[in-house]
Amino acid sequence: MGKAGSLTIMDPLEEIETEDAHYFPTVGLHSPQEKIRFRFSNFKFDVAQCAQEYYMEERNDILKEEMGNLSLFRVVRAYLINSGFHKTFK
User: Fold this and answer.
1) Distance CA 19, CA 65 (A)
2) Closest C-alpha to 86, from 29, 45, 78
3) Per-residue pLDDT reduced to its tens digit, 43-82
4) Which helix (H) or strand (E) holds 89?
5) How many CB atoms lie within 10 A of CB 2?
6) Residues 6 or more apart in contact with residue 77 via CB below 8 angstroms
7) Cα–Cα distance between 88 and 82 in angstroms, integer?
């Protein structure tokens, strides 16, 4: 297993210990402006469908939450201050 900031390349012919294991290519990015390009041949995972399902699940979870005005104010305040928008908060 690789550590943060490293690339781990697995041998596709190497046996995996369990037949139920599923491995997906992943990468972690730090900020919204970072970009990366992948080229996969015969990549059958439907990224667009997965993203849509994730978005809908997240959206439904958000809509289920009830939040009072004070809680909402605290969330917005924390976001603005932590993101460096002090003047916007004032």
Assistant:
1) 38
2) 78
3) 777 888 999 999 999 999 988 988 788 888 888 889 888 8
4) helix 86-89
5) 9
6) 89
7) 12
Residues 6+ positions from 8 with CB-CB distance below 8 Å: 1, 2
Q: What is the pTM (predicted TM-score) of this model? A: 0.35
CA angle 45, 46, 50 (to 5 degrees): 110
Quote the tokens at residue 49.
């469908």
- Two structure tokens written together for 21: 């294991």
Q: Could you give the CA distance from residue 73 to residue 69 in angstroms, rounded to a whole number?
A: 6
Q: How far apart are CA 17 and CA 45, in angstroms?
A: 22
Buried b (16+ CB within 10 A) or exposed e, 53-77: eeeeeeeeeeeeeeeeeeeeeeeee
